[in-house]
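Bug report (template v2)

What were you trying to do?
Predict the complex of my protein with NDP.

What happened?
Run completed; filing so the output is reviewed.

Input:
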Amino acid sequence: ASQTMACVFGNPIEQSKSPIIHALFAEQFDIDLQYVKRFAEADAFAFSADEFFSLPNTIGANVTMPFKHDALKWVSSLSSQAKRAGAVNTIIRKGSIFEGDNTDGVGLVNDLKDHGVDLQGLNILVVGAGGAAKGVLPALIDAGTNQLSVYNRSADKAIALVNETNHYKDNIATVYDDAAYDEAKEGFDLIINATSLSLYGKLPQISDLVFSNKPVVYDMVYQPSPTVFMQKANSFGCTNNIDGLGMLVNQAAQSFYLWFGHYPEVGKVHQYLLANK
Ligand code: NDP
């Protein structure tokens, strides 16, 4: 049998761990997979995707920053997750048809599960309103979240995201306004940092009161870990702090499943990445 091909599109892309993750998944099922990094120019996602999928035996692709929206426009059809997220991180080829999906939400929810966090009934603060935040809100709602607050530096984006979210489930989301005097600040069970701030050693400008209830703290950034946000939470007595590496492995697992119909074991791969940083 000939080798199956997949790739990840991004810019930059050198740092991507997706090839090693998918190589380890493929090994689990004895699948002969060549998964490569594809750099695309900022304005050339469609060209790059056309080019890749003209190669023989291409089964699908992942899409990372900054192309998740370009991918949404490029594919032939969208899953409900991709539609609701407004972003595509996984392309599945079915002959000449290309389906767009978004596995970031499943990735986060499954990683939280792996860490023993049940989302049923939780009051969650999401920090950030970019592609990653948008990608995970539908999955958080489907997993039983009771209440969502969204904070973003640019408030207009938080407002837009909250409105969109309430379109799917009435009154579940509100904009977190740090200036308002509000007891609601103290009631969070889970805080998710969906900004890139930790990459630069920076913290979001929100009240320390958000840590009062000793929430679980999740940072989508995973390098360096513990991130500055996790360290800050820890200094307020929040001891359950999780970085985004498990989300990365879990979103990849869901993509792999969409391509091959086999669900890989993620724990071993997560451990491998931790041991080989
Ligand atoms: P976007 O560029 O779409 O959004 C970035 C977000 O960060 C926005 O909310 C933006 O706010 C905020 N932000 C950036 N710089 C600052 C700053 N200086 N001060 C305040 N806010 C800031 O990126 P994504 O949403 O796609 O990704 C966000 C992070 O999540 C990235 O670091 C990415 O690597 C990570 N991620 C991790 C995944 C995983 O599997 N672990 C999966 C997906 C993403 P504003 O709107 O005001 O600009």
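What did the reviewer find?
The first strand starts at residue 4 and ends at 10. The mean pLDDT is 96.
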